[in-house]
Amino acid sequence: MHDVNQSSSANDHALPEDLKRCVAFHGHLCPGLVYGYLVGKDASERLGLHRSQDEEVVTISENDTCAVDALQVMLGTTTGKGNLILKDYGKNVFTVFNRSNKRAFRFSRRGSYRYEGKDQEVFAKLEAAVAAGRASVHQQMRQKKLKALDLLAKPFDAVFDAKEVTCPEPPYAPLAPSKACAQCGEMTMATRMIDTQDGRCLCMPCARQEGLSS
């Protein structure tokens, strides 16, 4: 019988180098990270992408899960550059847009997950422990790792549907000067400030304190 606490570190060396970079950025290997990795890798192949240095590639993620970190590493789409757009609908859906040829693909995760790895008994026990809320932190990490490795072994089209879509070109990240808030004095993007009737410009938190912004 397998020990459900058995370490799977022996499998770490077999991870692709680009996935290792995702793990290093994210902090650990988990199913969500693998979902993002799979999408990033497939999108790169379909759209002929190189890692985005500026805003030449745009990702629209319909969730804020671990997958987003892998997409940042794989595609170079980040919130700081403005080419990672988060629409937190809780949907396992990602759209990747290539500005150079105006093409986009939408990736939607297929139905319920089923473990098909070799450690069936171990995974079943871990799943039961997690579902019952009695899994230790180590057991939770072990369950995530087994699922992640199983996802890596599946054909991409068994995990995601991918279809080319017509996507309006996302706008470039807006640029604007910063101004000091008239109340707190902190520098704030001018286009995000609230103008008051008495001619002051307030940041959103200060405007809320005065009942000027919801």
Explained architecture:
It is a single chain. This protein has 214 residues and is of the alpha+beta class. The protein has two domains: 9-165, 60s Ribosomal Protein L30, Chain: A (2-Layer Sandwich), CATH 3.30.1330.130; 178-209, no CATH class. It has helices spanning 17-26, 31-47, 67-75, 120-131, 137-153, 156-159, 204-209; strands at 57-61, 84-86, 93-98, 103-109, 160-165, 178-180, 187-189, 194-195, 201-202. Strand 3 and strand 4 (103-109) form a beta hairpin.
Features:
214 residues; alpha+beta; 60s Ribosomal Protein L30, Chain: A; two-stranded antiparallel sheet; 7 helices; 17% strand; disordered N terminus
Provide the β-strand percentage band: 15-25%
Distance between the termini: 58 Å
Helix proportion range: 25-40%
Question: How many helix segments?
Answer: 7
Radius of gyration: 22 Å
How would you spell out the order of helices and strands?
Answer: HHEHEEEHHHEEEEEH
CATH architectural grouping of the largest domain = 2-Layer Sandwich
CATH topology-level name of the largest domain: 60s Ribosomal Protein L30, Chain: A
Task: Indicate the structural class.
Answer: alpha+beta
CATH C-level category of the largest domain: Alpha Beta
What sort of overall outline do the alpha carbons produce when their principal axes are compared? globular
